[in-house]
Amino acid sequence: MGGQGLNKRILHVDMDAFFASVEVLRRPELKGRPVVVGGSGDPTRRGVVSTASYEARRFGVHSAMPLRTALKLCPKCVFLPVDYKEYARVSEKIKKMLLEISPLMEDVGIDEAYLDITARAEPSEQIGRMIKERIFRETGLTCSTGIAPNKLLAKIASDLRKPDGLTILCPGDVPELIWPLNARKLPGVGPKTEEWLKILGINTIGDIASKGPEWLRDKFGQSFGQYLYEAAMGVHESPIITEWKPKSISREETFEQDAANWQTVARALALLTRDVVSSMREEGYTARTVTVKIRFEDFETLSRAKTLKQATDDLEVFRRTAFECLGRIELKKRVRLVGVRASGLEPAREFS
Ligand SMILES: [Mg+2]
Fold it and tell me: How far is the CA of 285 from the centre of ligand 1 (A)?
């Protein structure tokens, strides 16, 4: 287990049905009703469910499901458009509050974060309760929290009792509480791995653990196989990442009004590209891959990327490549957002 300090205490916070809960908060008349947030909020149009309230989940509605399917399952559901601005505002408020409890926070999404609470004097349960109470008092929202010696177990723990749960796991709890869980509950196991595991006769996390590291490495490759084994044993050494070197530099712009013509999109793309290149230069990077992202009025989002033969920070090359990418996207609807990203970053070499 190497350096997995058994005394570490990591807390994972996961907001309950976040988008739907924020919507209900500002529309109290929706409380107790099945609410689905997704796309433009029109279930007769294309789009998928971003979040379903717990009331809607009872009808079988879940995230990533087409809105039309959700409508069939639950005609009484209230459908609302996604309003990231509002969710981001609430999310920021929560993250700020978490940082007051411990400066060691890893922000992993709009509705979740890890917090290293090792240095706090209070017992874990008391900190967990305090965080839940403060979030509720300041935002009116509930969350589920897990506390464990590492990030992996903390994440599994927060998922054990949803909504509004608080679960504390010790390494000794792994055989009894974690092994009976479906393999899919192990972070890193997606639908494809799950399918492959099933073919191999593996259904639970305990089944993974029982196969042993050699067998798993043989079937899933050195690094992922080893990960699966350690994860199933509850071992995980990845630290809280409070900040890291950027893997990409990007800019995006959401138009005040959805843009209907190519010129508006092109002008924005040119400005964003210039910004990206100047930040790259400031931070001393060159990049190989240029990605352009377009989000349409209905939140359909397309991106196109091109990788150059050589990393560069040349504005002209970047602009040309970005426009090449834009040219591969059919602007068939009004455009809500345009973004550009430079990735495959390499430190710029000085030839002086
Ligand atoms: Mg959540």
Answer: 35
